[in-house]
Design a protein that fits this description.
It contains 11 helices and 11 strands. By secondary structure, the protein is an alpha/beta fold. It has a domain of 223 residues: Aldolase class I (TIM Barrel, Alpha-Beta Barrel), CATH 3.20.20. Helix 1 packs across helix 8 and helix 4 runs parallel beside helix 5. It starts with 11 loop residues before the first helix and ends with a strand. Bound molecules: S-adenosylmethionine, 6-(5-methyl-2-OXO-imidazolidin-4-yl)-hexanoic acid (DTB) and iron/sulfur cluster. The site of 6-(5-methyl-2-OXO-imidazolidin-4-yl)-hexanoic acid (DTB) has 17 residues, from strand 2 and strand 7. Iron/sulfur cluster binds next to loops.
């Protein structure tokens, strides 16, 4: 089977066969795909910043920022431009090549478009790839953000269509797909993934991968988040999903999305170094760096370096990479 042609005709049964095979066979195949498509083993580094925190009218049952739950998070106004630029400079100094700005909004309001566009332009001018995640989009907004210098729009499907309705009631799966279409039509690259460990079954994890596989072209980035349990939300007491199950999702993601960045995203703070190494071995080739995600902690520079030293990754300057041209890391495994 060729390893270099992304497919959009996966059946759910095929993905199930892939996902449920013995872990050594699954990871072995993912490594073959990784080597065939990402010959120099780059690890991409993104950094997040919450530019508008809390008070969100949506009821996503995992989120610290939803106004429906008492999570103890104070709502904040949109961050001033100079603070965003200062954070972007720190991210670049920390080796990030993509800067992702997130807002606790249900949807982007027209009145905020110029402010966010100015942030995108300023971050781009720092020599970083730009990404925003701002909720649902209206017609024309994505075009303005693209003109300002936007590279990626993040908007997750989160889980299977079946399980989704038990997680969020204030918007639909179709709403999510509609916004993704708007971003894509404006020429913005997509970052679309989901969350594991919310109480969904394996068939929902497979169902999420199946839905993502139908997007044409595939999302250029596929973030795989492990639930960060937030006290006060309906999923605040969920036990962590196992490392091998996360590895299955990472490996299946690598095989189904051979040309996409598969990101080991939220949840690294709750994983051992060994579990994180397994996920990077199993196919993920991107992480969030920095000591904060949006509202929760992330391992930070020293522990990231320890992880990368442990698996033998090394920072190098790169030229003319297929998806980014900034500082990256080389995997010597
Ligand atoms: N409001 C926008 C939206 O929902 O698209 C953007 C921000 S929202 C926080 C971005 C994504 O972060 C969500 O779609 C979800 O996949 C992820 N996320 C939020 N809370 C999380 C948590 N506690 N654990 C893991 N992932 C989480
Ligand atoms: C994504 O898939 N994960 C990031 C990013 N896209 C926006 C967000 C993770 C949030 C984790 C919980 C928090 O820090 O609030
Ligand atoms: Fe709001 Fe996004 Fe959190 Fe949902 S995930 S409550 S839309 S900030």
């Amino acid at each position: 089977m060729p390893f270099d042609s992304p497919r959009h005709d996966w059946s759910k049964a095929e993905i199930e066969d892939l996902y449920t095979q013995p872990l050594d066979a699954l990871v072995g195949r993912a490594l073959e795909v990784k080597r065939a498509n990402w010959a120099d083993g780059k690890l991409q580094k993104s950094q997040l910043l919450s530019i508008k925190t809390g008070g969100c009218p949506e009821d996503c049952g995992y989120c610290s920022q939803s106004a429906h739950f008492d999570t103890g998070l104070d709502a904040e106004k949109l961050m001033p431009l100079d603070e965003v630029v200062a954070a972007a400079k720190r991210a670049k100094a920390n080796g990030a090549d993509r800067f992702c700005m997130g807002a606790g909004w249900r949807s982007l309001k027209d009145r905020d478009v110029p402010k966010v566009a100015a942030m995108i332009s300023a971050v781009k001018a720092e020599g970083l790839e730009t990404c925003v995640t701002l909720g649902m989009l209206e017609e024309g907004q994505a075009e303005t953000l693209k003109e300002a210098g936007l590279d990626y729009y993040n908007h997750n499907l989160d889980t299977s269509p079946e399980y989704y309705t038990t997680v969020v009631t204030t918007r639909t799966y179709a709403d999510r797909l509609d916004t993704l279409g708007k971003a894509r039509r404006a020429g913005v690259k997509l970052c679309v993934g989901g969350i594991l460990g919310m109480g969904e079954g394996r068939s929902d994890r497979i169902g999420l991968i199946h839905e993502l596989s139908k997007l044409t072209p595939h999302p250029e980035s596929v973030p795989i988040n492990m639930l960060v349990p937030i006290k006060g939300t309906p999923r605040g007491e969920r036990p962590a999903i196992s490392g091998p199950e996360m590895a299955r999702a990472s490996a299946a993601g690598r095989i189904v999305f051979p040309k996409s960045w598969v990101r080991l995203s939220a949840g690294r703070e709750g994983m051992s170094e060994g579990e994180q190494a397994l996920l990077l071995l199993a196919g993920a080739n991107s992480i969030f760096v920095g000591d904060r995600l949006l509202t929760t902690d992330n391992p930070g520079e020293d522990r990231d370096q320890a992880l990368l030293d442990a698996v033998g990754f090394e920072a190098v300057e790169h030229e003319a990479m297929p998806n980014t041209d900034k500082t990256t890391l080389i995997n010597h495994l």
